Amino acid sequence: MTETATTPRKQTLDKDLDKLVHVEEATSTVARGLVAPGLALLFLALAAIFAGTYTFGEPGAIIIVAAAAIGAYMALNIGANDVANNVGPAVGAKAMTLGGALLIAAVFETAGALIAGGDVVSTISKGIIDPAAVGTPEAFVRAMMAALISSALWINLATWIGAPVSTTHSVVGGVVGAGVAAAGISSVDWHTMAQIAASWVVSPVIGGIVAAIFLAFIKTAIIYQDDKITAARRWVPVLIAVMAGAFASYLATKGLNHLMKIRQSDALLIGLGVFAVSWIGAHVLVRRQSEGMENRNQSLRRLFHLPLVISAALLSFAHGANDVANAVGPLAAIVFTAQQHTVDATVAIPLWVMIIGAAGISLGLVLFGPKLIRMVGEQITKLNPMRAFCVALSAAITVIIASGLGLPISSTHTAVGAIFGVGFFREWYTAHSKRRRAYLERKGIEFKRNGNGEADEEELEMQTTSREEIARRKLVRRVHVRTIVAAWVTTVPAAAVLSAGIFLFLDFIA
């Protein structure tokens, strides 16, 4: 009788306990989702306090503190969106883990920003608007504040929808919108704007073509050779040396140029010197790594892992050196104008402003960067170490070509365009290459599985016959292409309209 009476109570108690467990699990899941936004808000507060310690009692201290928090918000968004282009291909190619990529990028982004971030920056993004035309210093501060808020909001939206966009173009749009609202259309240098608009096309096209050329070379000279290992020993050191020389010129031109004045010819000489030294070292390393390797594509990929890791680090360093100005340039302009009560086209960036920018980019990458890293590295097209190597190499070479021709360029558009180029080239090559088909026929591949029971990638490509299957499994995903291109096209006008609205609101309440 006692057992019968207590049994229902035990069952009810168990059910109640189960409900509590489920509630705790749900609460824990929700709490984990709030950690990143909570830390971001804490960083904004700390940035404001940090700015206050340097400007307490000075003219315009309240405005500067508010601007510091907004600049920190902008830096967080740059880290969340733009840095994915540097490490995404290496992560997608499985050359490094996501955690390792976040660590490397955070360290080298910070180092690039603090070491080579520059002492002077154009506060109006390369002369897009005339500061004198804006009017009073108070109006200029409101214009820079509107540009900072609008560009940060737009990048935040782009990150949310999964579209890597140019942070430079976002700032440009914000500056244009605020300038037009403050001083009219005549205040904008439309010749400069035409050059920036041209970079929307130039950057991804050049990046895609260069990446496709290198991938075509790798396929022809190494992958579809009968003796892959011998071919790799001959050509992989050359490719690594080209990458090292390109990055040396890249850093000299776009990164270290902030520390010392380096001419284009000097940067090319630096690149040639690094090429020669790297070829010798890579020749020894590749020969040692390739000893005992099987004559298969999977073996070749291991030779590209270390170069990919190094390229991700160098791209992050150069990005930190260049793009930190997008976060702190308008902020530096606000600080100078509020303190001196005058408007100047160029100003010195205080160290505390640079620290906020560098810390914000790194923190934004760690907190919100994984989404875009996966998008760039895995969801646009399938990458392996050789394809990712072509993307990284294209990014460095394209910047050098564009700098030599005097063309404005976007690192985001270049890197993503290179991924597009790799993917679209694979589509064409799979469908049209007679050399590839002759090679597979000569090797006797008849849609069988290789000896260890794993399907070889080239066999899988030959087995794929339907267009739907091709689009689904291995080539460029059109839905991502459409989303990204649409975000690129609308970045400047959207940021401009948003900035104009914010400026008019700030002007109204002032």
TrEMBL record:
Pfam families to which the protein is assigned, alphabetical: PHO4
Q: How does it sit in the membrane?
A: Multi-pass membrane protein
Task: Give the highest taxon in the source lineage.
Answer: Bacteria
Q: Where, subcellularly, is it found?
A: Membrane
Spans through the membrane = 34-54, 61-80, 100-118, 139-161, 197-223, 235-253, 265-282, 303-321, 349-368, 388-407, 413-429, 483-506
Tell me a Gene Ontology molecular-function term this record carries. phosphate transmembrane transporter activity
- Please state the protein's primary subcellular location: membrane
User: Which UniProt keywords are present, listed alphabetically?
Assistant: Membrane, Phosphate transport, Transmembrane, Transmembrane helix, Transport
Query: Which InterPro entries has this protein been placed in?
Result: Phos_transporter
Presence of keyword Transmembrane helix: yes
For this record, the Gene Ontology CC terms, alphabetical, are: membrane
Name a biological process GO annotation.
phosphate ion transmembrane transport
Family of the protein in this entry: Belongs to the inorganic phosphate transporter (PiT) (TC 2.A.20) family.
Recorded protein name is: Phosphate transporter
User: What organism does the UniProt record list as the source?
Assistant: Nitratireductor indicus C115
